[in-house]
Amino acid sequence: MTIETNWIVFPEGETQEIPGPLRMGQLVDLNGRPLPLPLPTARMIAYRVVGIRRKDERGSLDSFHKVELVPAFELAEYC
User: Fold this and answer.
1) What is the mean pLDDT of the chain?
2) pTM for the complete prediction?
3) Of 15, 29, 64, 70, which is most buried with the most CB atoms under 10 A?
């Protein structure tokens, strides 16, 4: 039996467990949940997934999703 765990890695290096896997380029909120498009406003804190690393050990599979902060002027394109 393998236990799968997903993590979000913030630019500062902090990690937080998230409920499910993410895709490259996906926009997420502070809790690692995907943001629905189109966005209601550009005045929000959003991150973009820029890298995914998987760590496979005996009995566990950890996926680390590295994110970067998306500036407001880029978020305006998604509104």
Assistant:
1) 94
2) 0.89
3) 70
Instruction: Over range 4-15, report the average pLDDT.
Output: 96
Mean pLDDT computed over 35-60: 94
Angle made by CA atoms 69, 25, 44, in degrees to the nearest 5? 35
Give, as one character, the DSSP assignment of residue 2: -
Helices (H) and strands (E) in the chain, counts: 1, 5
Rounded to whole angstroms, the Cα distance separating 59 from 32 reads: 24
CA distance 2 to 56: 10
Indicate the number of domains in the chain: 1
Among 59, 67, 62, 77, smallest CA distance to 27 is for 67
Q: Where are the beta strands (DSSP E) in 1-79?
A: 3-9, 15-18, 27-28, 47-57, 60-69
Q: Which residue reads 């895709």 in tokens?
A: 23
